[in-house]
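Here we describe the complex-level prediction in full. Unlike the single-chain runs in Section 2.1, the two entities below were treated as one system.
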Amino acid sequence: MKVNTYDTDIILKAFRESDRFVIQRLYKENYYPVEKMVIDNSGSKDEAREIFQEALVIVLHKIRNNDLHLDCSFQTYLFAICKNLWFKELWRKRKMWMDIDTENLASHETDDLYEQYIQNLKCRLFYKHFKELSEICQKVIRFYLDKMNARKIAVMMNYQDESIVRRKKYNCKMALIRNIRNDPEYKDIEAYENKDELRPVDHPVSQW
Amino acid sequence: MKTRMNYDPLIIRYLNGDLSAPQREDFEARLKTDTELNEEYRLHTSVDEALQMDDDNRFRDMLDGIHEELVRKRQFPRWVWYTAALVLVCLAIALSLIITRERLSGTDKLFATYYKAYDSPGDVRSVGDTKNSPLAFGLELYGENDYEGALTQLEQVIRVEPDNNEAQFYAGVSSLQLDRFQQAIPFFKVVIDHQDILFLDQARWYLALTYVKTGNMAQARQLLSDLELSSRFYGNKAGMILKKISNE
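The structure predicted for the assembly as a whole is:
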């Protein structure tokens, strides 16, 4: 099946159903222009990947909440999100100011999206560190989050008693929190969230 | 420098529900007044919340998978692998063909240059009535370029008279005419073993050419050297072949 990326209905359905085939096509057709835009504007491939993927997560949330209203093609919209998010990121990370695209994305919408992006970035970071834990740690934390009691976890994981589970959970959670705290990216996000004066809201000084 | 308090054990115990009721109340009261505790507590809860967003995390995993695949394909698209494999196979085939051809072309060329079927004995009536003598009949067929027929007849003679050097020799040349090089070798060897002066040089010459053709150069060299020294008729030609072989 040839996916017509201009057919919004197919795209919306694909996001709702996590249709890998369609999303893969979308990814393939839209990622490289975004990567080029980021690299052309002082970014790296990793940053392009992060921006693009989190833009897709934002789109996913909007679709889930029936909050996606397109006045242009999906591709144009997605590119505008990525561009504006990256230009905001440039300010946060490098104190460079770039004029955002207001033609395809209203200025206030960009601000909202960026706040959402920052929250998503934290979730992405937390999840990344969670996946870097050992398999046992991931299981123990997952069971706790699923409200499974220590006795049941001990049985499932073949531990002698609940105290081992509690100790394990404590150590795993501590490792996770420690790794997150030590991540420079987390420190940057925290600094951004705690210092409003860093935000380019009114009259930013152009660095260009 | 401000020392950071380690609130983690307390927060984890609180989140696990391991605190007593008074301890819980105390903790909740401190959350409202202690900014640092509050910040640490928010980190713990937001981590837990993030990990519980299964749909988002699954979606991120899918995107990561797609990205890895995309980058891998872009670095080494499938057609590059196929083309590289095809080129390698073609190169290997071409190389082996060239090597084989080069090896064969040298010996083939020499053989073609110097090989000529030995003349027919001509009037074979001297060997007897061709109808009653298989040898005469064989030689007659040889003279008529019927090498298959000649070989059959001569082999019949050899079965009865293994010492018949004429039959052995013409059987050998008939085999060469039929491109049966390996088959020709024993016929010539028998003649050489018998040291029959009538066919000795001829047998050495044709056997040497057979070795050249089959790539058995050491044995060809030996025979050609003997011929160069001893044969008036084949000596020069043997010397020329030897020179060409050593140049290669």
